[in-house]
Design goal:
The complex is a heterodimer.
Chain A lengths: L2 H7 L1 H35 L1 H13 L5 H12 L6 H25 L3 H9 L4 H32 L11 H10 L2 H29 L16 H4 L5
Chain B lengths: L1 E9 L5 E10 L4 E5 L6 H8 L7 E6 L2 E2 L5 H6 L1 E4 L11 H5 L1 H5 L4 H14 L16 H13 L5 E5 L7 H18 L2 E6 L2 H7 L2 E6 L3 E6 L1 H6 L4 H7 L8 E5 L5 E5 L4 E5 L6 H5 L2
Parallel strand pairs in B: 3-8, 3-9, 6-7, 7-8
Antiparallel strand pairs in B: 1-2, 1-4, 4-5, 9-10, 11-12, 12-13
Helix pairs in contact in B: 5-6
The chains are: A mainly alpha, B alpha/beta.
The structure holds adenosine-5'-diphosphate and magnesium ion.
Chain lengths: ~230, ~280
């Protein structure tokens, strides 16, 4: 049986595993993103806390993934095979990457713009939601893309513990000596990472339209000549 | 009316930016705070809308201590223009101008209509409404900044070196237009600059500041030029180095040619009896 035949025959199962993979990935990426926002903003607000906070949480990434998957249930009181356990571990890894991105993103909002937002009378919450968050958006998106790809690849590790995902194609493939299964796992993981990344890029385009280059009419025309009316 | 009552500001790092400063700004007039960089102008200006809290003294608007007004509400009632326009890079011009009316609860359509009106008032082509600030020239950005500050028709306008970052020709034009606007709108304006020519051109009242936010002299432009209080003011106005000394010499066609101290022509002074042409006819 060729690899292609095997894949075609097992397509329903592969798709099911893909869905499982997504169900582990998306909540973890979302949770990591949402947790990183207040932490990143705090790091900018309190510069002295920045390194302990960002560096400290960043170190979580150095924990080998397999032991974390095994240790977390002891802390959370979940069982090793519960998907929640994997999501929690993946969230921590995502957070480790995302906190630094978030701190950099909020730090990149220009002080003048922040002050202008204060001067027009935005409340603190209004300022965060309508000014800082959108302006930090591009850098947040860059961080989110890294977290998304990294999470998709990390999910597979949890298959070793019996949590089903595309990683199960590797574990099964090894156990039963089916090369096609391993190939399918690799291809589908890559495809999934690519698709999610493209979705994120598209989302960024829709949410942050001001990043597109200026709609100039005639090539080199200076904007000053278009709209400034002469003196009275 | 805005009153600064013996205000001081010492920042947390110990910098004494302003010490014991008092000033009354009459309603519907323009007061210019004039001083070199770091003398405390921005600090003083921001005390009015509570972006800076004085460490001593108080600021009163129409006899109400601003410390008793919620900062957010206070700021929504006062226009503020910054040097680098402070426009929101992610908002279209029309949305940015509509910010304060929106914050004050105006419906979206109403706020937009108001914003479009203001673009007209500050001399911006309505075509620019849908641009983002990155797609505007420096002069246009400052006009948008002024429009945003005026959008909800505040009584008070605070302007912090609003024309400091644009090139000199545009700056002159913006100054001229601000004067025209002020003739119509009669706001109470506090205008910060380090440019003496700008101060003379715009101020009904000018406050010359020394470092530490201390007043060197307060007066009308004319009073300052006619009777500078001391050497510091005199030097600051450029009265000592001959920068403002003018000479007049008879002109062949009649009237007088006015030159600066170095002999460069600045303009023509007509004869009292009716100008150059009257002389030429004889
Ligand atoms: N947030 C701050 N913290 C500490 N010092 C400040 C702060 N803001 C301004 N200063 C200092 O206060 C002095 C006056 O500043 P500022 O009011 O900005 O002057 P100006 O607007 O006239 O240039 C300067 O010495 C400046 O360095
Ligand atoms: Mg300043």
């Amino acid at each position: 049986m060729t690899a292609v035949q095997w894949i075609l025959e097992n397509l329903p199962q592969i798709l099911e595993l893909t869905v499982d993979h997504l169900l582990l990935t998306v909540p973890a990426v979302l949770a990591a993103f949402l947790l990183a926002l207040p932490l990143g903003r705090l790091a900018v607000r309190l510069p002295r806390l920045r390194e302990p906070l960002v560096g400290g949480i960043g170190l979580l990434y150095a924990i080998p993934s397999l032991p974390l998957f095994i240790v977390l249930p002891l802390i959370l009181g979940t069982s090793i095979r519960e998907p929640l356990n994997a999501v929690a571990a993946l969230t921590l890894f995502g957070l480790a990457l995302m906190v630094r991105s978030a701190a950099d993103a909020f730090g990149s909002v220009e002080e003048d713009v922040r002050l202008a937002a204060v001067a027009v009378g935005h409340s603190a919450a209004g300022r965060f939601l309508t000014v800082e968050l959108p302006l930090a958006g591009p850098a947040l998106l860059a961080g989110l893309r890294v977290v998304s790809v990294s999470t998709i690849s990390l999910v597979s590790v949890s298959a070793v513990l019996g949590i089903t995902s595309l990683g199960s194609l590797f574990t099964d493939g090894f156990e039963r000596g089916i090369v096609a299964s391993i190939v399918a796992g690799i291809v589908m993981t890559a495809v999934l990472a690519l698709v999610l990344d493209l979705l994120l890029v598209a989302l960024g385009r829709v949410l942050m339209p001001w990043r597109r280059p200026a709609p100039r009419r005639a090539g080199s025309r200076e904007p000053a000549q278009v709209g400034e009316r002469g003196a009275a | 009316m805005i009153e600064f009552r013996q205000v001081s500001k010492t920042y947390s790092d110990g910098t004494a930016a302003v010490e014991d400063f008092s000033l009354t700004v009459s309603s519907h007039t323009t007061t210019v705070l004039l001083g070199s960089s770091g003398c405390g102008k921005t600090t003083l200006l921001r005390m009015v809308n509570r972006m800076v809290e004085p460490t001593a003294g108080s600021v009163r608007i129409d006899d109400v201590d601003v410390a008793t007004v919620r900062p957010v509400a206070l700021r929504r009632s006062i226009g503020y223009v910054m040097q680098n326009s402070g426009l929101m890079p992610h908002r279209r011009v029309v949305e940015d101008i509509a910010t304060v009316p929106r914050l004050n609860g105006a419906p979206r359509a109403e706020a937009r209509r108001r914003a479009m009106e203001l673009m007209e008032v500050v001399g911006l082509d309505p075509q620019l409404a849908r641009r983002h600030p990155g797609q505007l020239s420096g002069g246009q950005q400052q006009r948008v900044g002024v429009a945003r500050a005026l959008a909800d028709d505040p009584n008070i306008l605070l302007m912090d070196e609003p024309f400091g970052a644009v090139d000199p020709l545009v700056r002159l034009e913006l100054q001229r237009e601000l004067r025209r606007l002020q003739d119509d709108l009669r706001k109470t304006i506090v205008f910060v600059t380090h440019d003496i020519d700008e101060a003379l051109a715009l101020g009904d009242q000018i406050v010359v500041l020394r470092p530490g936010g201390r007043t060197a002299q307060t007066g009308t432009p004319r009073e300052l030029v006619e009777a500078p209080a001391d050497d510091f003011v005199s030097r600051f106005l450029g009265l000592d180095a001959g920068r403002r000394k003018l000479r007049a010499a008879p002109r062949p066609g009649g009237g007088q040619v006015v030159t600066d101290d170095a002999g460069r022509p600045l303009g023509v002074l007509d004869d009292a009896d009716g100008g150059p042409s009257a002389g030429a006819g004889e």
